[in-house]
Amino acid sequence: MHNSSQTLDTSQTKTATSSTAWLAMISLFLGAACVQLVITRYLNGEVAPQAFAATLEQLIRTEKAPATIQSLAIFFTPHITSLTYSLHFFILLAGVLLILRILMPLGALFMFVSFIVLWGFTYTGENSWFFEFLSPALYALVLAVSSYSLTPNIQKPSDHPSSHPTPYYQRLLGGILAPDISFLSWCFWVIVASSVLFAIFLMSRNGGNHILLASLLSSITIAVLAILSKFLDRYRVVAQTQQSNLLVGRWINLFTITIGVMLIFQVYEDSLLNWFTVEGYRGLVNSYVEYGNTPLWFRNALAWVAEHANIFMPIQRVFEVSAAICMVILVFRFPIVLLTTGLFAILSFTEFGVTNIWPPAPGKPPAWVFELLLTTLVSLTCGLYYLFDALKYKSWHYWLLGSKVFESISNLDKRLLFVLFFILEIILFSEGAISKENDILALHFAALALIPLFYILILIDIVRKDITKL
């Protein structure tokens, strides 16, 4: 369907696609989260301006919210109808664009802005987790920048008389996700995946009194959009860039660091909540047994874990701390990220149907299914990328440290980063936490821990090998 100047040969296509496909997978996951969120919030009545007005009123009255966010809430209160409908419209639009992989940078940008607004207005609520909407926003921001940097350049005939221009529609359609899978095979696997999603949505209890309808609509909508995205592959073009694999690796690294930062924050918050004590850990696991919506065999396994909390608590604590450090400084990339993905998957499954309120209370709405499931899927994508990347090189040095992170940064820039981190460290040590709330304290402690880790990240990069020389 395309002339020879706009496509690559078969071997080149597979190579180029294998790098950009990782970002396309993350785009698919982010889009699915957007679509499911809007459908469930609509059926729960949360898209109604009255419901959102109540959220803003609670935000204005609370003492936990920063003054800036409260000022924004006061400003938007008279425009609550426009804000509510516009916010959910842009979340849904972002989901459609991301699943179809049309205008990916714009769709990711819509998602980032919408989720930041949603996070700012809801994170102080009693049934919210600090990273519930913040982590999807951060993933969307990284995807927006990365997909824009990998968008194929449009060549004008005047610039290259011997070449044909790349049509605008091919630039807008994004990259091909799975060129080796036929349309019928893709449809089959989409149906399988949507069936799994349907079961997950049911277990999550998202949808209130319309759980079945919300689960069905969400899974069918995501499946239809995913099938349509495969149909659009016939009009897509592979980005003709020799640096695509290197660029994708850098963005995957940024996704990994983002997850590591979130994990460091969570370790501190769990410690402040006394969940990393034997009794606190046992109480937490027992709450999942009592209020969770997982199968009986799994709840029995959790009950056994609670009985042996003195063994499992220190194991989980040591692993989470070690994994967070390794993900920030980017060592042991594929084993650590894949093992952490396994932990996230277990935690996601465990928390299906449980509220974010502690201690859990019956009758309260359950947590959003994608609040940890999305991190699990992004982490899985990063782990698989590192695994396949490591298999290309038979080098223990590369498996341990990976490729250089700051390949294009000069020594002067690295020194400037050291100075910047040093200044930030002085500020953080001189200023105490502005609040005794667990979230604020956890942020403060996480920031104190992250600066030395970024020092280590820069120092380790000196001994890392250049991927182009392997």
From TrEMBL:
<feature type="transmembrane region" description="Helical">
    <location>
        <begin position="321"/>
        <end position="347"/>
    </location>
</feature>
<keyword id="KW-1133">Transmembrane helix</keyword>
<protein>
    <submittedName>
        <fullName>Uncharacterized protein</fullName>
    </submittedName>
</protein>
<feature type="transmembrane region" description="Helical">
    <location>
        <begin position="183"/>
        <end position="204"/>
    </location>
</feature>
<feature type="transmembrane region" description="Helical">
    <location>
        <begin position="367"/>
        <end position="388"/>
    </location>
</feature>
<feature type="transmembrane region" description="Helical">
    <location>
        <begin position="129"/>
        <end position="150"/>
    </location>
</feature>
<feature type="transmembrane region" description="Helical">
    <location>
        <begin position="89"/>
        <end position="122"/>
    </location>
</feature>
<keyword id="KW-0472">Membrane</keyword>
<feature type="transmembrane region" description="Helical">
    <location>
        <begin position="440"/>
        <end position="460"/>
    </location>
</feature>
<feature type="transmembrane region" description="Helical">
    <location>
        <begin position="211"/>
        <end position="231"/>
    </location>
</feature>
<feature type="transmembrane region" description="Helical">
    <location>
        <begin position="21"/>
        <end position="39"/>
    </location>
</feature>
<feature type="transmembrane region" description="Helical">
    <location>
        <begin position="416"/>
        <end position="434"/>
    </location>
</feature>
<keyword id="KW-0812">Transmembrane</keyword>
<feature type="transmembrane region" description="Helical">
    <location>
        <begin position="251"/>
        <end position="268"/>
    </location>
</feature>
